[in-house]
């Protein structure tokens, strides 16, 4: 009913809850480490609902009483002062009054992606409305957004510890990292490889299920060995691309639209996080044996992906994904094998996103 994701993750939650309750019974555990794990598990269920997967989110409670059990463990482990450690990054987007936004979501005319990104690189505070820059009503939002942006610059610093000839930033969520790379003169490519891109090749998550299928099939066989798991996943992904017509068409289209990738030797792919499905698809299409890094991952992947993660805490994911420059500023459209963006006509959302971009630029140019 919920594809490869649901078939793997929902039973995994049941096993993980049993494991945690057994640890509590034996009374041999690190209190905060276990609490952090519990909070990651709780927040993932709430995030699924936040992203519109209401029925899927409810299934965890239906099959395992997951939230009831997690809430009970949380209450047992929690101590005053834990909150800031459990949620080191705030949900800045929730600090902006909804009344600031227009009721209708309207977007402007299509603009070529490359030209639009050049314009974003050159933004200054003169491009940001005075209300967003100076209003006391948005003071808490600006402070919270800065905390998230500082983590983005720290992630960028960690990326630079790797050797690569081309940095591939998966948009929209990696827009901050792409802009940092441009400001720093690092060879980079903005790749709009997302669910919107996949929707060109199948409805109802058809293409997406062809990516998660190999991942979770390999995880079942090698749950504790990353190299074996990832090698098998990539082989299975390649087989899907050759076997399934829509995946073969997707791969041919992607290779045609981004020919420059074929000439790159040492590629590093970066993504915000969750499952690494897009790095997997990238590898299946281009077969470059490229390395990939993510900001963080889903709770069930934190351990096996640990060497590919900037932070080992799932609760830090959605604060980054919900920056206005990532989630509200623009959306993709595709015409004649070219990528275009349509920017929001909502002046408040645009100003908030512009403020984030200019603030990020100041942070990364001044601090490292």
Description:
A 4-stranded parallel sheet has the order 3-2-4-5, with helices on both faces. 56% of the residues lie in helices and 10% in strands. Helix 1 packs parallel to helix 4, helix 2 packs across helix 3 and helix 3 (54-64) packs across helix 4 (66-77). It has 17 helices and 7 strands.
Outline the secondary-structure elements.
Layout: H1 3-26, H2 31-50, H3 54-64, H4 66-77, H5 83-86, E1 111-112, H6 113-121, H7 130-134, H8 139-159, E2 166-170, H9 175-183, E3 188-191, H10 195-198, H11 206-221, H12 226-243, H13 245-257, E4 267-274, H14 277-286, E5 291-297, H15 317-321, H16 324-327, E6 330-335, E7 338-343, H17 347-367
Parallel strand pairs: 2-3, 2-4, 4-5
Antiparallel strand pairs: 1-7, 6-7
Give a quick summary of the entry.
The protein is of the alpha/beta class and 368 residues long. It is built from 17 helices and seven strands. The chain starts with a helix and ends with a helix.
Structural class: alpha/beta
What fraction strand? Answer: 5-15%
- Quaternary state of this entry equals single chain
Q: Return Rg in Å.
A: 21 Å
Q: pLDDT below 50 for ≥5 consecutive residues: which ranges?
A: none
Q: Overall 3D geometry?
A: globular
């Amino acid at each position: 009913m919920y594809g490869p994701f649901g078939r793997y993750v929902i039973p995994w939650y049941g096993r993980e809850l049993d494991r945690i309750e057994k640890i509590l019974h034996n009374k041999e555990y690190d209190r905060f480490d276990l609490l952090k794990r519990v909070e990651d598990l709780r927040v993932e269920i709430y995030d699924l609902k936040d992203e519109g997967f209401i029925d899927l989110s409810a299934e965890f409670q239906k099959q395992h009483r997951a939230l009831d059990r997690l809430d009970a463990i949380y209450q047992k482990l929690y101590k005053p002062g834990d909150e800031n450690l459990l949620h080191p990054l705030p949900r800045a987007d929730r600090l902006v009054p909804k009344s600031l936004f227009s009721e209708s979501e309207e977007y402007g005319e299509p603009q070529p992606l490359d030209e639009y990104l050049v314009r974003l690189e050159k933004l200054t505070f003169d491009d940001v409305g005075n209300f967003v820059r100076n209003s006391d009503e948005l003071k808490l939002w600006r402070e919270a957004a800065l905390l998230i942006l500082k983590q983005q610059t720290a992630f960028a610093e960690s990326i630079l510890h790797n050797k690569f000839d081309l940095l591939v930033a998966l948009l929209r969520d990696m827009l901050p990292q792409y802009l940092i790379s441009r400001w720093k003169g690092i060879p980079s490519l903005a790749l709009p490889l997302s669910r919107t891109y996949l929707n060109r090749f199948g409805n109802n998550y058809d293409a997406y299920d062809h990516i998660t299928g190999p991942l979770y099939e390999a995880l079942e066989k090698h749950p504790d060995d990353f190299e074996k798991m990832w090698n098998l996943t990539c082989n299975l992904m390649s087989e899907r691309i050759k076997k399934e017509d829509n995946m073969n068409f997707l791969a041919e289209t992607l290779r045609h639209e981004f020919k420059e990738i074929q000439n790159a030797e040492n590629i590093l792919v970066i993504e915000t996080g969750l499952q690494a499905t897009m790095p997997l698809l990238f590898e299946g299409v281009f077969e470059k044996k490229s390395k990939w890094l993510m900001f963080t991952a889903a709770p069930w992947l934190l351990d096996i992906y640990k060497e590919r993660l900037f932070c080992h805490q799932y609760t830090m994911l959605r604060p980054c994904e919900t920056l206005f420059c990532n989630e509200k500023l623009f959306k993709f459209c595709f015409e004649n094998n070219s990528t275009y963006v349509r920017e929001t006509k909502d002046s408040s959302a645009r100003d908030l996103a512009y403020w984030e971009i200019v603030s990020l630029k100041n942070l990364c140019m001044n601090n490292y």
